[in-house]
Amino acid sequence: MYINFIKFNFCALSFFLFFFFQAEDGIRDAQESRGLGDVYKRQSTQSTGNFEKIKSRCRKGIPAPFRGQAWQYLTGSHFQMTSADNKGVYDALCKKRMDAEIEGIIERDLGRTFPTHVAFKDEDGDGQKKLRNVLRALACIDPEVGYVQGMGFIAATLLTQMGEEESFWCLHAMLNDERYRLRDMFRHGFPMLQLFFFQLKHLSLKEIPKLQAHFDRLGVDPSFFAAQWFLTLFVYHFQFRALLRVWDIFMCEGWKIVFRCALALMKWEEKTLLSLPFDRILPALKNLHEGKNPDEIVERSLKIKFKTDELAKLRQRYDAGER
Questions:
Q1: Could you give the CA distance from residue 40 to residue 51 in angstroms, rounded to a whole number?
Q2: Using CA of residue 158, residue 168, residue 117, residue 233, what is the dihedral sign?
Q3: What are the residues whose beta carbons fall under 8 Å from the beta carbon of 45, sequence distance 6 or more?
Q4: How many CB atoms lie within 10 A of CB 23?
Q5: Are 99 and 15 in contact (CB under 8 A)?
Q6: How far is CA 270 from the centre of its chain?
Q7: How far apart are CA 182 and CA 192, in angstroms?
Q8: For a surface tag, which of 9, 28, 50, 149 has the fewest beta carbons within 10 Å of its beta carbon?
Q9: In contact, 150 and 116? CB cutoff 8 Å
Q10: Residue among 89, 180, 83 nearest 142 (CA)
Q11: CA max distance for the chain
Q12: pLDDT in tens for each of the 323 residues of the chain?
């Protein structure tokens, strides 16, 4: 049961927007949002105006007390979890026997995921137990994908913002909803990751042509440096505050913000990168985020402009066999 954004419960979405306005803009806008709640009950969420308002708010950053709930509404996972069809599903998955090899890999990776984070650093602590349960349940519900290391970083990030079962359903939605399609990222051969490398290279030709020409001369392909950006949605690289800002946008808009961040970081350091030879440029590319203000990363990223249709056309070219 996959629930698209446009099928959101009007009252729930209005409730989220009310508190979002209250935290972000103060009492005046909070009072105005009471009226907006009635509007959202009457209007279809397919309205461009409704989506644009939500998108604008997510780009400003979701207030911390409401972030977990907001992510669940944005992905539709709240409605999956509370559906009568899914009652008891998570508990059953946690108790299900699973492939011993995959179970062993999950156990091995638990301590490697956020090893310095207070919630996950203790072996058999509450954080690792919850992470284990979420990853086991995901591997059981989709044996074809099973478990891939990048899932652990994403699941752990969700666990910092919401409960255990909520995190499972949120990642389940991210794996399967058309806006995110993480399942195609993680399944055998990483097909969507290969597509993203192709799209990033061609977007670079437009946005940072001199730097892309330098990459071509050196034989530097996006697969050499960008895999972790896509596989972990920047979890592996960004400071947590920057990560949460990017994820607020990702949950609302999908993959465009990840491409924008990648391009913005390369453009930010373009002058330095143009001066580097092959053996120095790869380490530099993997550390582009270091020492950068989280809010400025988001601001610069949102200034990178390209249409969703551009990504769609590049996907068509890739599917037709262009490499």
A1: 11
A2: negative
A3: 5, 6, 7, 8, 10, 13, 51
A4: 15
A5: no
A6: 25
A7: 8
A8: 28
A9: no
A10: 89
A11: 59
A12: 333 444 444 445 544 554 554 544 443 444 433 333 333 333 334 456 678 888 999 999 999 999 999 999 999 999 999 999 999 999 999 999 999 999 999 999 998 888 778 888 888 789 999 999 999 999 999 999 999 988 999 999 999 999 999 999 999 999 999 999 999 999 999 999 999 999 999 999 999 999 999 999 999 999 999 999 999 999 988 989 999 999 999 999 999 999 999 999 999 999 999 999 999 999 999 999 988 999 999 999 999 999 999 999 999 999 999 98
Supply 227's token pair.
Answer: 């895999």
| Structure-token match 């609302």, residue found | 252
For the chain, the residue count is: 323
Structure tokens at 86: 């899914």
164 token code pair: 């255990």
Residue for token digits 């499972």? 168
